[in-house]
Amino acid sequence: MSQQHILDAATLEQHEALIPPSGWFEQSETLQKLRKNKKFPTIWCPGCGIGVVMGALIRAIDHLGLKNDDVALVAGIGCTARMPVYMDFNTLHTTHGRALAFATGLKIARPDMKVIAIMGDGDALAIGGNHFIHAARRNLGITALVVNNSIYGMTGGQYSPTTPLGGKATTAPYGNVEPPFPVCDLAAAAGATYVARSTVYHALELDKFLAEAIAKDGFSLVEAVSYCHTTYGRLNKLGAAADMMRALKDNSLSKSAYDALTPGQQAENTKIVRGKFVDKDRPQYTAIYANLVTRVQGGEK
Amino acid sequence: MAVKLMQGNEAIALGALAAGCRFYAGYPITPSTEVAEALSRELPKVGGRFIQMEDEIASMAAIIGARVGGLKSMTATSGPGFSLMQENIGYAAMAEIPCVIVNVQRLGPSTGQPTAASQGDVMQSRWGTHGDHPIIALSPVSVRQSFDLAVKAFDFSERFRTPVILLTDEIIGHMREPVELPDFAKVGTYEQRVTDKPADYKAFRNAAEGVPPMAAFGTGYRYHITGLFHDEVGFPTQRLDEIDPWLERVNTKMENHMNEIALFEEDYEKGARVAVLSYGCSARTARHALKLARAQGKQVDLLTLFTIWPFPEKQVEELGERVERIIVPEMNLGQLALEVERIVGRKKVRRVGLANGEMVTPQMVLDAMEG
User: Is residue B41 part of a domain?
Assistant: First the structure.
């Protein structure tokens, strides 16, 4: 059997250039952001894309030069929500769907901290859908990182609010009859000030989007499209992890490429569009409330 | 401070402020809304923060998040909202996050009668969330005590790192009484103090009589908090040698301090063979019945419980040894009475319950003394 790389030659070369020299762990500021007292490996299946997102998040935080003490990671329940425990920040692993509601209290108590809510698609958009739209509406300075693998992975492959129409799941054995949520559109419509999407194949693009989102003083959303080869891939005969990773490359296009299409071509497009969809400014909740406190304490009735 | 006429709900809001509450998250629900209204007005004046969340689940989550960030925090609700909060109350018990949940009880189940009083959430306060866990619930009998127990609720929540339920009811919450409140600057509560260096800090180790000090996020103590069973530093665990000590510590941390936690009032008479045991609004009925009975020359004991959970077993056991009959008036079909029966035996207990929104009358209590 011939060995086949999932990356093309040019990308491979680009990635090989990034491989650090020996002694890298001690020297790498980025890897110092992993918890040293936490036992690895992770709970994720071999080949899972969530680890790629974790790497991107660490590189983004490192790129911004943030101190570990100044970052809080808040997560709900699910495969993705297990991410914070491996990283050396203030980490709060909460209840299913409620990461953004816990994060709301934390951000209001500590507006100086960078609060990042880490959720899967079911966590953020089904059980947590209400909190998602209201956090965006309030424009709280929180970054929502949604890892979208189109399925409930931890419970074994039930259909989620982002499972494609027709896709098979353990609770959709004849194919899913519900249309999926467009995550970025939802966030944009609800008022998010920064909205971007990439995939776990395009890890370096995720780094960039996450860094921009975390730097934003407002509600920001990054959708990281991933896959679940263990459940969704198996049920829909999509191959192994590497095949699903390759599919993210083959079945996605950049926003600039999408924008160059004719309206007719855009309407027929079924590929994942990667890019930044919203980047705007509007007053952030904790700043508005701080002003209110100043006004009231100044004697306003 | 001057004497003021105010509602129980308002007194709770002021008690919270005096205790140092600086964050409130809630969702409107009758008959608790006055607590939110008062705090939306008062919190900004002291530099605090108020937010109206999208539902009660989010409210409960937000107050936990705020306390993790270092602000003493509270929410207020009534039956339906209290049901929605249960999962996250369990989270606060598991992760040992101090917070106060006010439940102004109304008639249920379901939407029931939003404007009618009830004491139907006694058992929900104890067992509403899944799993075994300790909880503290306090129940005031007056407007002034609504203030005092709000302060106590914060004190206990910080002292024992636990959610505390302030279990009041529509009658006490909406009743107006003249009260004179203490100087807020002189009201104190237990304050968490971490003395360990960050490198040595273990948020969940068995220290300080089972209540390890809690560090706020962003103060240099980076650690993990989870609703999963966890080890001393907060990492998830499935090891029995880590789960069992946790269960032992957390489920005894209040039990061992019942002399601090059990708040009650005994009004006992020599030779009494009948006692009335009550709490919340029904304690006012009990007090009235006691007056009438004593005016008729009867010897009657009265035990009023302000701490409902953990159940003050010692006091009830002693009362059971004093008298032949204990009458338990309450606005439900027998909830706290179950606990009294557990301690003194079924034969000694007379339940006097109403669950239709009407108060138990003193006459009903007097009738239970006869026959």
Answer: yes
